[in-house]
């Protein structure tokens, strides 16, 4: 966990090769006690060997956590969405509907966003009422969307980091608190390959 936590708290991503190199180095170092010649029981190396094995195990666990964080980071990275002040047309599949105090929020598996060549994987938009918008439905929505905001205070909760790992690339609502969505005729059983 410590390796993953360290990786996620860095201000910038380290080089791609770093976690693999540390993991390979820790793995190699873990093999050394087996080939290290044993001295007499009173020798300092006999007492140092268990300590070194423990340190190497900690280093290996740290490297595994960092490598896991890097793999997850690489798996969810997507082009950033800059956002616009004008409403845009977006099309996709309703993936989920979240309840909130201000009304339902629809999570779309995005197929297209007007004027965007590489849209984010998911967009969450606020709607007045869900109505027939149920998971698996194809919908077209028009509204103002923008990237998730970062922390409001220094060292505060970073909402953008959480939604990054959920592959949620944009959030939206009109000034009156809703986005207009219409159903399209098709329905699918699973959204996993809806746009492909």
Task: Describe the structure in your own words.
- It is built from 4 helices and 7 strands.
- The protein has helices at 2-9, 16-35, 44-76, 159-165, and strands at residues 88-98, 105-113, 122-126, 137-143, 145-146, 168-172, 180-187.
- A hairpin with a 6-residue loop joins strand 1 and strand 2.
- It is elongated and about 80 Å long.
- Largest beta-sheet details: 7 strands, mixed
User: Strand share of the residues?
Assistant: 15-25%
- The arrangement of helices and strands along the chain is HHHEEEEEHEE
Q: Supply Rg.
A: 24 Å
Helix content: 25-40%
Mean pLDDT: 78
Extended strand count: 7
Poorly predicted runs of 5 or more residues: 188-193
Q: So what's the overall shape?
A: elongated
**What is the first-to-last residue Cα distance?**
35 Å
Structural class: alpha+beta
- Largest sheet: spatial strand order: 5-6-3-2-1-4-7
Q: Helical element count?
A: 4
């Amino acid at each position: 966990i410590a390796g993953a936590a360290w990786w996620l708290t860095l201000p910038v991503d380290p080089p791609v090769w770093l976690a693999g190199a540390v993991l390979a180095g820790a793995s190699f170092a873990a093999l050394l006690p087996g080939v290290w010649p044993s001295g007499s029981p009173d020798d300092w190396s006999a007492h140092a060997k268990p300590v070194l094995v423990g340190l190497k195990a900690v280093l290996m666990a740290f490297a595994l956590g960092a490598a896991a964080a890097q793999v997850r980071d690489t798996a969810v990275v997507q082009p950033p969405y800059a956002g616009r002040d004008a409403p845009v047309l977006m099309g996709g599949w309703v993936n989920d509907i979240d309840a909130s105090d201000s009304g339902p929020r629809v999570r779309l598996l995005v197929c297209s966003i007007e004027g965007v060549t590489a849209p984010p994987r998911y967009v969450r938009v606020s709607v007045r009422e869900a109505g027939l918008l149920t998971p698996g439905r194809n919908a077209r929505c028009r509204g103002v969307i923008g990237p998730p905001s970062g922390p409001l205070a220094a060292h505060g909760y970073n909402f953008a980091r959480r939604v990054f790992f959920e592959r949620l690339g944009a959030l939206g609502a009109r000034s009156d608190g809703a986005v207009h969505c219409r159903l399209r005729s098709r329905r699918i059983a699973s959204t996993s390959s809806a746009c492909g």
